[in-house]
Amino acid sequence: MDDIQECLDECPKGKRTQQNMKTLCGLLYKYAIPRNLATLNMGQYITVRAKDAGGKDALPDEAVAALRRNVELIPGADYVLCQCYLGFRPSEFLSLDAGNYNRTERAFVGGAKTDAGRDRVVTVSPVIQPIVDRLVKDKTRGPVFCSEKGTVMDLKTYRALFYSVLEACGIDNPATEVSGVQRRKYTPHSCRHTFATLMKRVDGPEKDKLELMGHTSGEMLRHYQDVTFSDLRKITDAI
After folding, report:
1. Does 215 fall in a domain?
2. In this structure, are 67 and 168 located in the same domain?
3. Is there a single domain that holds both residue 173 and residue 87?
4. Same domain for 8 and 122?
């Protein structure tokens, strides 16, 4: 369900388009369930966020500061802070593999979902470099942001960790009921918005910021313009 909700949250169109997307999703499940391709219509749980049509809020500055203060004190604070400074979607973040980390350039190759976002390069900000160094130190492959057993962490577990970290850090994260479902103000996807907000405050070519975000609107720019590690690092070093 998270991936489907993210499709709506990231849609740049308005409320009507999101409503049509929700309807289409319901029809797809209506087709799939009788044919044993799915067991539950997840479309009924999708929310059209009419007020902003843009998804979740970024974490405020004081929340990011609280995460930085508690990296070594609260279990999981390091993971949440890293996601804020890498900008990957939750599922992409949890899929980051040590084998796809360039130790020389200090950059991850990861991402999925769209052609623009797939296998994109994200250089590591100095803010989280010590954390990344620790997590990949003894690994040549396998998930970087893993479970306690060293296996890939599922989204449900990470979401629970995210909420517990925010609570432990004293970050207010109120819940509201939308269509009968409790929705938190901040979710793991908020980290992606936080990354975009951090980049917004620093100077850098738009094409490089689009490269780091893996945004579909940058496909043509990526096709015609080269991007180097040093170009990307100028941005991530500044945030």
Report:
1. yes
2. yes
3. yes
4. no
For residue 194, the SS3 value is: helix
Nearest-CA neighbor of 194 among 56, 90, 96, 70? 56
The overall longest dimension of the chain from CA atoms, in Å, is 53
Based on the fold, state whether residues 19 and 81 are members of the same structural domain.
no
Mean pLDDT, the chain, as a whole number?
85
Residue 214 reports pLDDT greater than 80: yes
Contact yes or no for 113/93 (Cβ under 8 A):
no
From the centroid of its chain, how far is CA 91? 7
Same domain, 20 and 122: no
| Domain assignment present for 56 | no
**Integer angstrom CA distances of residue 4 from 21, 25, 69, 157, 220:** 10, 8, 33, 18, 25
Per-residue pLDDT tens digits for 49-94: 655 434 468 999 999 999 999 999 999 999 999 999 999 999 999 9
Tally of domains within the chain: 2
Cα(44)–Cα(217) distance, integer angstroms: 29
pLDDT of residue 116: 46
Q: Where are the alpha helices (DSSP H) in the chain?
A: 2-9, 15-32, 61-69, 77-86, 90-95, 129-136, 155-168, 190-200, 206-213, 219-224, 229-238
Tokens of 53: 């049509």
Which tokens sit at 163? 């909420």
Closest CA to 236 of 125, 109, 88: 125
